[in-house]
Design brief:
Elements lengths: L1 E6 L4 E6 L17 H34 L5 E7 L5 E7 L7 H4 L13 H9 L6 H6 L4 E3 L6 H10 L12 E3 L12 H17 L2 H15 L4 H8 L17
């Protein structure tokens, strides 16, 4: 297997040849209380209600996508879920169709020319993520958890940041502790910061933390700053960050 993480000012591209990464080797302590058993039911109920409420918005957004650019309305990617199991994640398409055939897998940074004019607004309002409510109904995701990543990127990030696979110990989420406290990934350093918060979530997952993350998400969508969200909701922070390792090919 060969993995290469290339960090640049314009984008970060990742190329991987080989098998899907194996899940984290460590295990979570035995869950206590009723929450671990109730959480899937709560996710399903909340996602179903949110999907029904957001259906008019989804239909309007889908129509705008279809009328303003060529290609399908929905876009799907393979992501890794709990225990490293791959699943198909759904989004409203915000980029020009088949643009990654030229750019390859890479993070989207401000000014990304692959994003359509309508897609820019959908991303700004996070409407493009609403189809992932269907992933929650299918049991592949949760409302709260580390954001899912692509297999080819996960392989390289685990090489650069040992412990990255720890994120696979829980279901990925529509929103997460890292997402409401830090901006989108743009470099290996930004991923390291988010990984530290993801590890905090994995170790402290519970109803009170999930509730605060959901409240923080609502505040974030109304324009409250990352710093104020953490302060108002007294969200946990990462005391130490994972040490970065040089990425080598093997």
């Amino acid at each position: 297997m060969t993995a290469l993480l290339d960090s640049r000012q314009t984008h970060v591209s990742v190329r991987v040849m080989g098998r899907t990464p194996r899940p984290a080797t460590r295990k979570l302590p035995p869950a206590s209380g009723a929450y671990p058993r109730l959480k899937p039911f709560m996710d399903f109920t909340a996602a179903g209600a949110l999907l029904l409420l957001s259906l008019p918005v989804l239909l309007l957004a889908g129509l705008l996508v279809k009328l303003t650019s060529r290609g399908p309305v929905l876009y799907s990617q393979i992501r890794l879920g709990r225990n490293g199991l791959p699943f198909e994640l759904f989004k409203l398409r915000t980029m020009y169709d088949k643009c990654e055939s030229q750019s390859g897998p890479c993070w989207s940074l401000p000014g990304d020319k692959r994003i359509t004019p309508v897609g820019r607004w959908l991303r700004r309002l996070h409407i493009d993520e609403l189809p992932q409510l269907w992933n929650i109904l299918r049991g592949e995701m949760s409302l709260v958890g580390p954001r899912p990543e692509r297999p080819e990127i996960v392989v390289s990030l685990e090489r650069a940041l040992p412990g990255y696979f720890d994120r696979l110990l829980v279901k990925p989420g529509l929103t997460g502790l890292a997402q409401i406290q830090l901006p989108a990934d743009t470099s290996l350093e930004s991923v390291r910061d988010k990984l530290a918060l993801d590890q905090v979530y994995v170790n402290k997952v519970g109803p009170w933390l999930d509730f605060r993350v959901l409240m923080g998400t609502a505040l974030y969508l109304t324009g409250v700053s990352y710093k104020n969200i953490g302060r108002v909701l007294m969200l946990p922070t990462a005391k130490t960050k994972p040490a970065a390792m040089p990425v080598a090919s093997a």
